[in-house]
Amino acid sequence: MKTIYKVFLNIIILTSIFLANSNIYAQNNFDKWFKNNGLRIDYYHTGTSKTEQILFKELKFEKHWGGRKKNLIDKFEYGSYLVKVYDAKTKTLIYSYGFCSLFEEWQFTEEAKTLNRGFPESLIIPFPKNNIKVELLSRQFEDNSFKKIFEMEINPNDLTINYEQKLEAEIKEIHVKSKPENALDLVFVGDGYTKNEINDFYKNVKQISDYLFDTEPFNSNKEKINIWAVAAISLESGTDIPQDKIWKSTALNTNFYTFGSERYLTTSDYHSLRDYASLAPCDQICILVNTDIYGGGGIYNFWNITSAKNPYKNEVFVHELGHSLAALGDEYYEDEVSYEEIYNKNTEPYQANLTTLVDFDSKWKNMLDDDTPIPTPVNSLNFKTIGVYEGAGYQAKGIYRPYINCKMKSLGTEFCPVCQRAINEIINFYAE
Ligand SMILES: [Zn+2]
User: How many angstroms does the Cα of residue 419 sit away from the middle of ligand 1?
Assistant: First the structure.
């Protein structure tokens, strides 16, 4: 009896020591490998619809590290690309994250079939204390596996690492409740606001933030989200509208008519954008463009972009944030642009709110009632039913969504429970 008690007691003591240590270990892990700054690897992502190549440009020091310090390894692996950072000496994986890019969207255009083109991109990691090896992997359409497309060893004492602070801009704390390392940091950068229009920019950030905090699941996570505004000043007001022959000199070089789509507002000038975003602790870049023309876009862990003065701005922003923050897919299937080949119906897409039913167990199956049929019919009885509704991801057949309607399908609705769960998981991953 005594022995059993003793063993039991030992287990309790050992367990509590282990728990205490694992916490300290997680915190120390960051301090063991990294400094409290960022390292940016600038490069050009080049190729055609079928090929891709990385052309290295330079390394840059970033003053702030606003990212994760506890969850150093990305447990989601969403996105088309995966960045892995290893300690060079011990080969330990010490940091990772997934993302998507504008280059990849361009690969679906007609011109990509014959033209070789390059887009600026950056990898952002915490600044290492020792030599590291960085790998960039690209997801393969055929089987969803990741293939290495670039690697480099980096010595943190390399004299060519660029420490120049290229820009200055006023930074305003719009809603800062937690330390950046314990929060999801949304950094708003304005484009097409002149010096005299900067108060307009702050007003637009405030309007959109107020709407965000009225929307679930952001409303319930207010204390875990920081909002910063970086007042980039443009020479001219507005943005490029090529279809109207309007061209403006602006800080972030945004434009409509991306890839021939009139309302697709983007910037391909990633390095300039990153120069501004790095002035604040940053997890997500949110670009507000000083125009009233409807438009926007969102690319996972890359940026989201919204027309700041269009009547639908709030709705568009939150929808695009669904893409850029949580890698959610579009739940609609009718669009002016046809993306026939975006999803391979023989594999399970990584998006948490889409399924091809190839591996539905990995998706929202555990949120379904036992008597919900798969596929689930769209009828008035099912408006509040989590199901498996055919039609999503730009395709009427073969791809399924979890809810009849959702913010990822149309404006003016709530996020469905599956999208809310995915966003919640991401916020907590940053805020833990
Ligand atoms: Zn949804």
Answer: 4
